[in-house]
Amino acid sequence: MRKVTVFITLKQGVLDPQGNQVQESLQSLGYNVVQDVRIGKYIELLVEDGPDLEVRIQEMCDKLLVNPVMEDYYYEVKEDVHS
Questions:
Q1: R_g of the chain computed on alpha carbons
Q2: Starting from the edge strand earliest in sequence, which strands make up the sheet with 71-80, in order?
Q3: Which residues pair with 43 in a beta bridge?
Q4: Contact at 8 Å (CB) between 49 and 2?
Q5: Helices and strands in the chain, H and E counts
Q6: d(CA 66, CA 37)
Q7: Is residue 71 classed as helix, strand or coil in its secondary structure?
Q8: Which NCBIfam families match (predicted)?
Q9: What span, in angstroms and rounded, lies between the C-alpha atoms of 71 and 59?
């Protein structure tokens, strides 16, 4: 088994109202050093290993986990995880 971590962020130029709200809230608390906030997603998967692991991960991201019109992603595959 492999632990796969998928990091998903909005593409540059896509409005992030949630990030804007968090930035405004931080600034209202006095954290004026925060100039921008972007909110993303973090997904962990436990996947059976195999020769086509990278292809399967990309297919899962492209077909379900990520909206390719609005989001970018990258993933990390950890070494064997004992379940």
A1: 17
A2: 41-47, 2-10, 71-80
A3: 6
A4: yes
A5: 2, 3
A6: 20
A7: strand
A8: phosphoribosylformylglycinamidine synthase subunit PurS (TIGR00302), PRK05974.1 (NF004630)
A9: 15
Question: Which of 15, 9, 16, 2 is CA-nearest to residue 53?
Answer: 2
The CATH number of the domain where 27 resides is what?
Answer: 3.30.1280.10
pLDDT of the chain along its 83 residues, tens only?
999 999 999 999 999 999 999 999 999 999 999 999 999 999 999 999 999 999 999 999 999 999 999 999 999 999 877 65
Q: Residue 64's domain spans which residues? A: 2-80
Written as six digits, the tokens of 67 are 């909206």
Scan for tokens 């292809």, then name that residue.
55
Domains in the chain: how many in total? 1
Whose tokens are 């399967």? That residue is 56
Please say whether the beta carbons of 48 and 60 come within 8 A.
no
